[in-house]
Design a protein that fits this description.
The structure holds two protein chains of two kinds. Chain A is mainly alpha-helical. Chain A is built from three helices and two strands; from the N terminus they run αααββ. In chain A, strands 1-2 form a two-stranded antiparallel ribbon. In chain A, strand 1 and strand 2 form a beta hairpin. The mean pLDDT of chain B is about 95. By secondary structure, chain B is of the alpha/beta class. Chain B has 15 helices and eleven strands. Classes of the chains: A mainly alpha, B alpha/beta. At the A-B interface, helix 1 and helix 2 of A face helix 9, helix 10, helix 11, helix 12 and helix 13 of B.
Chain lengths: ~90, ~475
């Protein structure tokens, strides 16, 4: 069971503002889903390695050569607030 | 017979023979998109499509895909054409580049007519999680088309486009293909570049085709696969994708997954799949039962891993660089309100679930454990393919369900992907083809193969498709 304070903590980690009544409903819904997920907690996975990639690949590198990225105009064109040549944001407390 | 009744391959042939122009094809399909009775599209760009058709018609030699129209799931970026991933978070967003797979198709002569509806950020199995509008199933307008690529599936079933692209993380191509009575394929993990695909769960996401025939799906796949320097998980296929020609299944061993044929599968679905399996035998193949005992844990494993990955991928949406923003006085307040207010309920739920599964104190119990169970599932598939060439199961345990039937209970929606998720966890290619009707609604047969067995899968699916002779025209549809 996920209580309200856990929901509040996780919502802060996820940078999601939930109204207090939403937090309670979210806790109930997540608890319901976790009941189904709990079947994997009973599995014996001793000595089983985690899957990190399903198709084995060596480290993939590209030649270390400069190439153009996005132009500044393209990078800024979808931003709602542009200040000088950058993204505009409010103050950080 | 309308131009919309031609398959994509037939349209390519008609263009090559000079029997039709690309502009005529594009106009015929745009007219069907304009009277969009099923709500398959989010954005349409008739001017761009018609301009491109004129350009291709004027070329001295037609490109391989000739100038045939296509619909693109709104999860794939298209330069200057609004791309929302079905979310308010990207309302009005115009990408500054085009996804590699879309670019390759455009270079080969496909013409993008518009962007298709989807569950927000591809999270859902009914397209009801779209922030814009639901999509209706062409076979019964009171029912869902499946999801998350429901718009792409409905657009093809409704013959608004001969083919389309979707993306599949846990079944989002195969399940809607099944529910709409068409063909949908998820290739091997890495076969198609994801550059320009708005990421959901990166260890699972794959792009793939929807079409009315297996041959059309193969034709589309052929022009998308292969390594892309912009996606380090993309790979070159060991052999080119061939257009399937097989007319029998002699020598093919097909394993039927016991765990996916039992409880939870509707009797009508089981009957239609059983009929297709008898057809496999009639075509000279052998059918044997196979047990994959870890398969039932696929759903739980997926609902740890996919939300965990989504919570990381969706961290980029903060209102600063693209999309709308909910302005506030401090940056933290602005982030939290933008994300809290512009993500829909299912996306918020998955971000919360994933953040929880990755949080300190829970990581080992959930994420770490799910990664290990995933290994067991991968091993089971691998062992099964020592015994058989392909695995068969229903694509979806049920036919299309009524709009609204599962929206109140998140887990009941998750169950729609119970047959498709295990294959996704193992990164394997799989195709869904229509194999019959249950209560007047289409049933899909899923065939899965080892990594890079696309040609084997397409060949078997094509032979079976000819024998099953399923009519993909929904009742009442006048083209």
């Amino acid at each position: 069971m996920i209580d309200d304070s856990t929901v509040h903590h996780v919502a802060r980690l996820a940078r999601l503002r939930l109204a207090p009544d939403e937090e309670h409903v979210m806790g109930e819904e997540l608890s319901g889903i976790l009941e189904h997920i709990d079947v994997i907690r009973g599995m014996d996975v001793e000595g089983v390695p985690p899957t990190t990639h399903v198709i084995a690949l060596e480290n993939v590198l590209r030649p270390d050569e400069p190439r153009p990225g996005l132009s500044r105009d393209d990078a800024l064109r979808e931003a709602r607030h542009v200040v000088d040549d950058g993204f505009g944001v409010p103050r950080m407390d | 017979m309308s131009l919309r009744d031609l398959t994509a391959a037939e349209q390519v042939a008609a263009l090559a023979a000079g029997k039709v122009t690309s502009l005529e094809l594009v106009d015929a399909h745009l007219a069907a998109v304009a009277s969009d009775e099923v709500g398959a599209f989010l954005a349409v760009d008739p001017d761009r499509a018609r301009a491109r058709a004129r350009e291709i018609d004027a070329l001295p030699e037609r490109p391989p895909l000739g100038g045939v129209p296509i619909g693109i799931k709104d999860a794939l970026s298209t330069r200057d054409l609004v791309t929302t991933a079905g979310s308010r978070m990207l309302e009005g967003f115009r990408p500054v580049y085009t996804a590699t797979c879309v670019q390759r198709l455009e270079d080969a002569g496909a013409i993008v007519v518009g962007k298709t509806n989807m569950d927000e950020f591809a999270m859902g199995s009914s397209t009801e999680n779209s922030a814009y509008h639901p999509t209706r199933n062409p076979w019964d307008h009171t029912r869902v088309p499946g999801g998350s690529s429901g718009g792409s599936a409905a657009a093809v079933a409704q013959r608004q486009v001969p083919w389309s692209l979707g993306s599949d993380t846990g079944g989002s191509i195969r399940q809607p293909a099944a529910l709409c009575g068409i063909v949908g394929m998820k290739p091997t993990y890495g076969a198609i570049s994801r550059y320009g695909l708005i990421a959901f769960a990166s260890s699972l996401d794959q792009v793939g085709p929807f079409a009315r025939t297996v041959r059309d799906a193969a034709l589309l796949l052929r022009h998308m696969v292969g390594r892309d320097p912009m996606d380090s998980t993309s790979l070159d296929m060991p052999e080119a994708i061939a257009l399937p020609v097989a007319s029998d299944l002699r020598g093919l061993r097909v394993g039927v997954v016991d765990e996916l044929m039992g409880e939870g599968v509707e009797p009508g679905v089981r009957d239609a799949v059983g009929y297709a399996l008898r057809m496999v035998e009639a075509l000279g193949g052998t059918v044997v039962p196979v047990s994959l005992p870890t398969t039932p844990l696929g759903l739980a494993t997926y609902y740890v891993l996919a939300p965990a990955e989504c919570s990381s991928n969706l961290a980029r949406f903060d209102g600063v660089r693209y999309g709308p923003v909910v302005d506030d006085d401090t940056l933290l307040d602005q982030y939290e309100r933008t994300r809290g207010e512009l993500f829909g309920p299912e996306v918020r739920r998955r971000i919360m679930l994933g953040t929880f599964a990755l949080a300190s104190g829970y990581y080992d119990q959930y994420y770490g454990r799910a990664q290990r169970v995933r290994t067991l599932i991968v091993r089971e598939f691998s062992a099964a393919f020592d015994q058989v060439d392909l695995l068969a199961s229903p694509t979806s345990p049920t036919v299309a369900f009524p709009l609204g039937a599962r929206t109140a209970d998140p887990y009941s929606m998750y169950l729609a992907d119970v047959c498709t998720i295990p294959v996704s966890l193992a990164g394997l290619p799989a195709i869904s083809i229509p194999c019959g009707l249950s209560g007047g609604l289409p049933v899909g047969l899923q065939l899965a193969g080892p990594a890079f067995s696309e040609n084997r899968l397409l060949g078997a699916a094509h032979a079976l498709e000819q024998a099953l002779a399923f009519d993909t025209l929904p009742p009442g549809l006048v083209t």
